[in-house]
Amino acid sequence: MDVRVERTRKRLQDALFALALERGLEEISVSDIAEHAGVNRSTFYQHYSDKETVLADALDALAAQAGAQLEAIVEWTLDPPAPLITFLEHVEANADLYRSAFSYPGSTVVMSRLRENVSLAVHDLADQRADQTVPLDMMAAGVAGTIIGVMSAWLARDPLPPASEAAVWMWLMILGPAQGGPGPLPRLSTGKALDASAERPL
């Protein structure tokens, strides 16, 4: 990407973040973002079609800066993997923005981007599942849906529980269906890989 293009997009993203600290996303207009970034509306539309895409790009950039990469999860373990906790810590640090995206009317662009990113990130992980009867793309979509669903419920809590606690809830929800069993394993054991043949409760 051209350096000037990257710089202008960064200014627009920073402007949206600054405005979002003052008011809700639905109250921020394209004109507001352009004015705060020091550009005109035509410049905005040279880079973005709408403010939702600005937010989606900005959240992606923040996640990358925080090292919150779900694709770093490389195996099924009993405990929540560190990359999942890091990702949720990123969400926790930007909770107000994510709440704006998740709450009505929300942002379909952010939600679609998040679902796509999570599905791609867990694709290889989903391929290691015990139950091979479910198509890989369906399993990846299911894991992504679980992550997004738990994120939404977590962000709705007041006060917001810590990311480490949300990671435990999320991982327990994922383990059961992803491993082909009727539910999550009954206990966690730090540092141990998941044995797909482990006995499960009926």
> Structural class, from secondary structure content?
mainly alpha
DSSP helix fraction: 55-70%
Count of spatially separate domains: 2
Terminal CA distance: 54 Å
Q: Residue-averaged pLDDT, rounded?
A: 82
Low-confidence stretches: 180-193, 196-202
For the secondary structure, the number of strands is 0
User: Which H/E pattern describes the elements?
Assistant: HHHHHHHHHH
The number of helices is: 10
What would the principal axes of the Cα set say about the shape? globular
- As a whole number of angstroms, the C-alpha radius of gyration is 19 Å
Question: Can you summarize the main beta sheet?
Answer: none
**β-sheet strand percentage:** under 5%
Topology:
Blueprint: H1 3-20, H2 30-37, H3 41-47, H4 51-65, H5 82-93, H6 95-102, H7 108-121, H8 123-126, H9 136-155, H10 163-179
Helix pairs in contact: 1-2, 1-4, 4-7, 5-10, 7-9, 9-10
